[in-house]
């Protein structure tokens, strides 16, 4: 580095509470006090955290969903000018179903250091208390909003063997649970709402049981849903039902042609897709 040249600052990605203001680490508080400025999703929302912990660090440009390239470039210029910045979202760990990915990606491209300050996360918190398997899981963010897309998404989960975690909003949760009951009626799910707050609630059961437990009161707060994955038997049955109307010969020839598989490989893959044995495939193709 040339004499007089300014060293770039650092971007700290800081986890903040998802509800209870006490759920913040000492390191997060110290970082928010030490940086030159804070990049918030919404400074009006985040101000209460700073006031609660007597943090007087100023806010700089906000970074919200849909923030464009110009906003990212301005923030990167500050970092290149030597400013240390802390990125926070409205709640929890930034970038997890929140804006920030493009900013962090571009900051890294410039060779600027990005430091993670761990904190709360609704998906992980709900998963950890859900009673559902945690050895393999997929976080899919917000559930699809439109009913048709949501139904299609839940049907795809019929063959997913790992646990699934999604978020949903209060004005769509009833429809979500009804569609879950339609597509995955026997599947165990766990629903968490208002996590870490005074009226925190966790319900486990089938979709119909969870919906009934919610009652008819006005639903508020954000919802996290943890869905048990399919057993191998359930996944196989779902695949058989999905392909029962597709001629096996057409599917077999399609696999050979599209994937360039040998006869033996195509039969093995077809057996996996349809959830049946290779012997069944062989017998049906050689009738």
What does this structure look like?
- The protein has helices at residues 26-34, 43-52, 69-80, 101-109, 122-129, 147-156, 173-183, 207-214, 232-243, 248-259, 263-274, 278-285, and strands spanning 11-14, 37-40, 85-88, 114-117, 137-142, 163-168, 189-193, 201-205, 223-227.
- Helix 6 links the parallel strand 5 (137-142) and strand 6 (163-168).
- The protein has 12 helices and 9 strands.
- It is globular, with a radius of gyration of 24 Å.
- The longest helix has 12 residues, at 69-80.
- The N and C termini lie far apart (76 Å).
- It has a 5-stranded mixed sheet with strand order 5-6-9-7-8, with helices on both faces.
- It is α/β, with parallel strands linked by helices and 287 residues long.
- Helix 6 crosses helix 7, helix 10 (248-259) packs across helix 11 (263-274) and helix 11 (263-274) crosses helix 12.
- It has 3 domains: 11-120, Tetrapyrrole methylase, N-terminal domain (Cobalt-precorrin-4 Transmethylase, domain 1), CATH 3.40.1010; 123-231, 2-Layer Sandwich (Methyltransferase, Cobalt-precorrin-4 Transmethylase, Domain 2); 246-285, no CATH class.
Give the proportion of residues in helices: 40-55%
**Unreliable sequence segments:** none
- CATH overall fold name of the largest domain: Cobalt-precorrin-4 Transmethylase, domain 1
CATH architecture of the largest domain: 3-Layer(aba) Sandwich
Termini gap:
76 Å
Keywords:
Cobalt-precorrin-4 Transmethylase, domain 1, 287 residues, four-stranded parallel sheet, Methyltransferase, Cobalt-precorrin-4 Transmethylase, Domain 2
């Amino acid at each position: 580095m040339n004499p007089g040249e300014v060293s770039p600052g650092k971007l700290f990605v800081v986890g903040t509470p998802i509800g209870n203001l006490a759920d913040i680490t000492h390191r997060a508080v110290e970082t928010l006090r030490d940086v030159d400025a804070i990049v918030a999703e919404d400074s009006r929302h985040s101000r209460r955290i700073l006031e609660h912990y007597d943090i007087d660090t100023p806010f700089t440009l906000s970074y919200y969903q849909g923030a464009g390239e110009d906003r990212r470039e301005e923030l990167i210029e500050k970092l290149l000018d030597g400013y240390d910045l802390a990125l926070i979202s409205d709640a929890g760990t930034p970038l997890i179903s929140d804006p920030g990915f493009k900013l962090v990606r571009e900051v890294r491209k410039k060779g600027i250091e990005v430091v993670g300050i761990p904190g709360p996360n609704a998906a992980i918190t709900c998963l950890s208390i859900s009673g559902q398997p945690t050895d393999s899981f997929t976080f899919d963010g917000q559930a699809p909003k439109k009913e048709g897309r949501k139904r299609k998404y839940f049907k795809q989960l019929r063959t997913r063997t790992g646990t699934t975690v999604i978020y949903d909003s209060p004005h769509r949760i009833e429809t979500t649970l009804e569609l879950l009951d339609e597509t995955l009626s026997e599947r165990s799910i766990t629903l968490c709402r208002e996590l870490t707050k005074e009226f925190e609630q966790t319900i486990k059961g089938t979709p119909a049981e969870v919906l009934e437990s919610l009652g008819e009161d006005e639903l508020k707060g954000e919802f996290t849903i943890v869905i048990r994955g399919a057993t191998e038997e359930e996944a196989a049955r779902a695949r058989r039902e999905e392909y029962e109307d597709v001629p096996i010969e057409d599917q077999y020839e399609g696999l050979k042609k599209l994937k360039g598989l040998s006869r033996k490989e195509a039969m093995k893959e077809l057996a996996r897709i349809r959830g049946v044995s290779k012997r069944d495939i062989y017998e049906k193709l050689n009738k």
